[in-house]
Amino acid sequence: METLRSKKGFLCDMDGVIYHGNRLLNGVKEFVDWMYKEDKKFLFITNNSGKTPRELQLKLRRMGLDVDEKAFYTSALATAKFLSNQKPGCSAFVIGEAGLYNALHDAGITINDIDPDYVVIGESSLYNYDAITKAMRLVNKGAKLIGTNYDLTGPSDSGIIPACRALLTPIEVTTGKQAYYVGKPNPLMMRTGLRILGVHSEDTAMIGDRMDTDIIAGIESGLDTVLVLSGVTSREGINAYPYRPRIILDSVADIPG
Is 15 noted as a catalytic residue in this protein? Predict the structure, then answer.
C-alpha cells in the first residue's frame, strides 16, 4: 500500500470505481481530496463514448464531487485522436451520441454518410436496422471500421445493457471485416492518458473494477494495477483470468493513508 500511495499519477476507471449510476460510491470524495492534498496527478478514464468531459464533470458535481473538466478522458476523445493522427481531415459515418460527435468535430473530422474514410461505432440508444445497413454498405465500399471500445456489455440504472462491441458485431459478421477498437484494453488509450498527466508509467497506477479492460490495459501499459471490488468483478471472479492485479481492494476508500 505504501508503494501505491507513493505513486505520482493515477488513472481511474469511473463506473464501479467512482460511482454506480447516479450514486457516488462511499469514500470517493475522501480519495479525491487525498489526491489533491498530496498533489497527485489523476485522470478519470472511461470507455463510455456517449458523454463529453463537461457532461461527466457536471454529473459528478451533482453527486457532490467537484473536479476539473480536464480530469476526464473518454474513448470518444481517444478515437478522435487516433483518426486525426491516422488521416488528418478525414470523414466518418458515425453511430453514437453527443460525446463522440463532439470529439470528432473538435478533431476536425467531418460527418459523411456517402463516401466516408471510416465507419465509427460507439454506444447509442438510436442504434437501429437502418443504421446497421448503412454502416455495412459503407464498409463493403471500403470504409475502415472503428469501435470506440471493446466492452460487450455495460451498466445502466436499469441493469446490464449491450455496449459497443455488441453493436459492432452485426457489422463485422455481415462484412467479414474486423473492427479496430480504440478504448481499453487497447494500451493506446492508456499511453495517451500518461502523456496528458505527464507522468511515467512506473510512477502511475491504474485503478479499475474490470479484469478484462482496466487491469489488462494497466498490465500491458506497464502500470501498477489495482482492482476494486466495488464494481462488476468479485474476488472469486478474478480466478477466471490468467493474470492478476497487484493489489485488490474493497474500494478506493482504502487508498488514502
Answer: yes
Q: With beta carbons less than 8 A apart as the criterion, state whether 217 and 190 touch.
A: yes
Task: Answer for the pair 224, 244: CB distance below 8 angstroms, yes or no.
Answer: no
Angle at 32 between CA 184 and CA 18, to 5 degrees: 45
Q: Is 106 a catalytic residue?
A: no
pTM exceeds 0.85: yes
Q: For residue 22, what is the DSSP state?
A: T
- SS3 (DSSP) at 98: helix
* % pLDDT > 70, the chain: 98
Query: Phi and psi at residue 75, in whole multiples of 5°?
Result: -65, -25
pLDDT, one tens digit per residue, over 53-92 is 999 999 999 999 999 999 999 999 999 999 999 999 999 9
Q: Which three cell numbers stand for residue 21?
A: 449510476
Domains of the chain (ranges plus CATH)? 2-47+184-254 (3.40.50.1000), 76-181 (3.40.50.1000)
- List 15, 117, 209, 214, catalytic entry: 15
Q: Distance between CA 169 and CA 150 in Å, rounded?
A: 11
Q: Which residue shows C-alpha cell 475522501?
A: 30
